[in-house]
Write a structure and sequence with these properties.
Layout lengths: L2 H6 L14 H9 L9 E2 L24 H10 L1 H13 L6 H10 L2 E6 L5 H12 L5 E6 L2 H14 L8 E5 L2 E3 L6 E5 H10 L6 E6 L7 H18 L17 E6 L4 H7 L5 E4 L6 E4 L8 H15 L4 E5 L3 H15 L8 E7 L5 H4 L10 E7 L12 E6 L2 E8 L7 E8 L2 H9 L7 E5 L3 H5 L15 H9 L15 H13 L11 H8 L4 H12 L3 H12 L12 H8 L8 H18 L2 H11 L3 H20 L13 H10 L4 E4 L5 E3 L5 E4 L12 E9 L3 E8 L2 H4 L3 H8 L1
Parallel strand pairs: 2-8, 2-9, 3-6, 3-7, 4-6, 7-8, 10-17, 11-13, 11-14, 12-13, 14-17, 20-22
Antiparallel strand pairs: 1-10, 4-5, 15-16, 18-19, 18-21, 19-20, 21-22
Helix pairs in contact: 2-11, 3-7, 5-6, 6-7, 8-9, 11-12, 16-17, 16-18, 18-19, 19-20, 19-25, 20-22, 20-24
The structure holds one DNA strand of 9 nucleotides.
Length: 734
DNA sequence: GAGCACTGC
């Protein structure tokens, strides 16, 4: 390795050496690494009432290709279909089938505590369908799209039907349901959307909430809503006004959770019974360090080589907080791996994090060649979203990155992204990744005391997020954030901040009533701020431009990814898109150029164009889908989305301002900016094309708090634009 | 003059 790599290497601090040791020295050190490991102990088995056991997986692994390709061909193949039926029949879960059906029939709510690999998610809906007691639809919610689609494909195949007939799914941008669909897998966000049109979820006889322990924002909305709906539809809940009402269309609710939180769910649903379903997880031996490690990268490096040299074959999965750590550890591992003696197996290093291009993500699924060992460096993505085969050893840094929204009474608050300690349930989940295929080993780079003092499970998202969208969505179903029976109640500052934002947008009036404008905002699958921008574009005759920009801003990937090694080259390549007004028009220029490339070039031409210009094709593709969805919604609302302002810059900026009222700041003499609607002094992020430009007034997409409070996604606006908004100028005076 | 865990409509 060249010396450049050495500079990026983690310090082998606890070895007390500053030079790079020879491979022999390193291996010797690794056998006595200063991380002494206490005797292995078996992962605690759950003291469960064992009901059933299954050979099956809850979640088929990441599908290679589309769900259709994976399963519908199989369903056409008679032999494969018979095999599937044979598997189903032989599942031990079949023995528990009747008791499951009975319990659900005699209770409004049933909690199922299912271990990993128990097969509950694929089998239970089929049991309820085949049992014949329910004639409406059965909904099964999932936090992730890929789970919803692949589960639907699997269950459809087990039913011997084409996907989208008896069994279907519904996720954003993709839906496979028919008139005869009885089992529907959908994302929890999709069910929240459906509630906005059908607040009592009348088309469902059964709603199964899977992975409830993850406590996503949308899961919590679903849980709170279900409690309300039960009172209204079944007439026996806490809502006394609903008592005595006809139970013509009662609802059954099943909550599936993977952790001991089941008790909390049971309590929330007034002592609902808890059923335990045994899984098929292999035992995992857990090791702790004897003393706490100040440098988890160093500790991970040593532990890896210790495993590599002393332990039998099996791939190693290392959990780290973020991309930065992954890149650093990767370069250290490579350097030492290249110096290993001949008789030690090769090391294949793979990284895995969400923003990694798909091609490189796919590397982790390639089978490990004989006489080598794969070492996967991953973020939390490998904890729930992606299951990697062949992993036998897990190294757990005990750290993760956590996003947290800091609400402010004044202004709209900002997000932080900080490295924090993981939770007990997260540690257990990580360890479990070693026991998918056989007896596994988990090396925790922290002490047993540290584990014991970890909090039990992650703080629900509802306590950490901006609630603006949620507040608006609840208003549409006639509910109030303050009166919803949340499992965990968000604090007043957070609620007040959401309330204030919606009032400023004119989504609610002075009496907190939803306005017609607010109702329109909620129709769009966008942050309310961007929905307001979109609706404002009609007045300014620039819907075509605004739609592209809003779609890009809503994409989950950044348009201009930061590539530290090629930063200057990237900046140069992107210069041609630059627009003097700032980042929004610059983004639009990229999208317009991409549109032209798409019209003239094929798949590989588009890809090359993106690479050559250092723009993220994933962001453009996603924005393309979002824009198509927005166009469809506009058509239904009779809005002409083709209205264009050409190259006139003001209409787009004035539309943006309509949504970003809380994100306006004015230049101060010292070159910093002062928020108009809040107390903060902010700086323009150095990645912005407006940095150092000293524009008198700016709007920005978001604030991020790192070394400073930075405004990102910035455009310059005229002060006269700001004067058009009485609420904004009123605030300034007060 | 900088640093981005993961989802979702």
């Amino acid at each position: 390795m060249p010396t450049v790599a050495v500079a990026k290497t983690v310090q082998l601090s606890s070895l007390g050496i500053s030079h790079i040791p020879s491979p022999e020295t390193l291996l010797q050190e690794c056998r006595d690494p200063g991380i002494s490991l206490s005797p292995p102990r078996q992962a605690k088995r759950r003291p469960a009432i064992v009901m059933m056991e299954s050979e099956d997986d809850d979640h088929p692994n990441q599908p290679i290709g589309t769900p259709d390709e994976a399963f519908s061909t199989a369903s056409r193949n008679r032999k494969a279909f018979r095999h599937l039926q044979e598997q189903r029949k032989q599942l031990p879960i079949a023995r528990g089938r009747e008791s499951l059906i009975r319990s659900i029939a005699s209770n409004d709510v049933t909690i199922i505590l299912g271990e990993t690999g128990s097969g509950k998610t694929t089998q239970l809906p089929q049991y309820l369908l085949e049992g014949g007691s329910y004639h409406g639809q059965i909904a099964v919610t999932q936090p992730r799209r890929v789970a919803a689609t692949s589960l639907a494909a699997r269950v459809s195949a087990e039913q011997g039907q084409a996907l989208g007939t008896l069994v279907g799914y519904s996720v954003r941008f993709d839906e496979r349901v028919g008139l005869g669909t009885r089992i529907k897998y959908l994302t929890d966000g999709m069910l929240v959307r459906e509630m906005m049109n059908d607040p009592l979820l009348t088309c469902y006889d059964v709603v199964i909430v899977d992975e409830a322990h993850e406590r996503t924002l949308r899961t919590d909305i679903v849980l709170a809503s279900l409690k309300r709906i039960l009172a209204l539809r079944n007439g026996n809940g806490v809502d006394s006004s609903a008592k005595g009402k006809a139970k013509a269309n009662p609802l059954k609710v099943v909550i599936m959770s993977a952790t001991l939180d089941a008790e909390k769910f049971s309590k929330f649903f007034e002592s609902a019974p808890v059923l335990y379903v045994k899984g098929r997880q292999h035992p995992v031996s857990i090791y702790y360090t004897s003393s706490s490690q100040s440098d988890y990268l160093d500790a991970a490096l040593r532990t890896f080589f210790q495993i590599h040299v002393d332990r039998p074959p099996g791939d190693v999965l290392i959990f780290l907080p973020g991309q930065d750590d992954i890149e650093n550890l990767e370069s250290s591992l490579r350097m030492y791996a290249n110096q290993l003696p001949q008789n030690v197996p090769d090391v294949i290093i793979c990284s895995l994090y969400a923003s990694l291009p798909n091609g490189q993500q796919a590397k982790v699924f390639l089978p490990t060649p004989p006489d080598s060992r794969k070492c996967i460096l991953a973020t939390n993505i490998a904890e729930t979203s992606i299951t990697i085969p062949g992993v036998r050893y897990v190294i757990d840094s005990g750290k993760q990155k956590e996003k947290r929204h800091l609400a402010r009474i004044a202004g709209s608050g900002f997000d932080t992204l900080l490295t924090t300690d993981i939770t007990k349930s997260s540690a257990t989940q990580r360890a479990g990744r070693a026991g998918r295929e056989g007896h596994g080993y988990c090396f925790r780079l922290y002490t047993e005391e540290a584990f014991n003092s970890m909090i039990a499970s992650v703080e629900p998202e509802v306590l950490r997020s901006s609630l603006t969208s949620v507040y608006l969505q609840l208003k549409v179903i006639g509910q109030d954030l303050d009166t919803m029976p949340f499992m965990d109640r968000p604090d007043q500052e957070s609620v007040g901040s959401a309330l204030r934002t919606l009032w400023l947008l004119d989504a609610i009036d002075d009496s907190r009533h939803l306005t017609d404008f607010g109702r329109s905002l909620a129709v769009f699958p966008l942050e309310p701020q961007y929905a307001a921008t979109l609706l404002a574009s009609v007045k300014h005759n620039c819907t075509a431009e605004v739609m592209s920009v809003v779609a890009l801003l809503s994409s989950s990937s950044p348009l201009f990814p930061d590539t530290s090694s090629q930063r200057d080259k990237a900046n140069e390549a992107r210069t041609k898109f630059r627009h003097p007004s700032g980042d929004h028009w610059t983004m639009l220029n990229v999208f317009r150029a991409y549109d032209e490339v798409c019209a003239s070039e094929g798949k590989s031409g588009r890809k090359d164009w993106c690479k050559h210009n250092f723009v993220n094709q994933r962001a453009l593709r996603e924005a393309w889908s979002i824009r198509a969805q927005l166009r469809g919604i506009c058509e239904r609302m009779d809005i002409d989305w083709s209205l264009s302002c050409g190259n006139e810059e003001s209409p787009l900026l004035r539309s943006l301002l309509r949504g970003l009222l809380q994100h306006v700041a004015l230049l101060q003499p010292d070159g910093t900016y002062k928020q108009v609607m809040g107390p903060s002094v902010v700086k323009i992020h150095p990645s912005s094309f407006l940095t150092d430009k000293r524009s008198p007034a700016i709007i920005y997409n978001e604030l991020v708090y790192t070394t400073n409070i930075y405004a990102r996604g910035v455009s310059a606006v005229y002060k006269s634009f700001i004067a058009e908004f009485p609420k904004l100028t009123g605030m300034r005076l007060s």
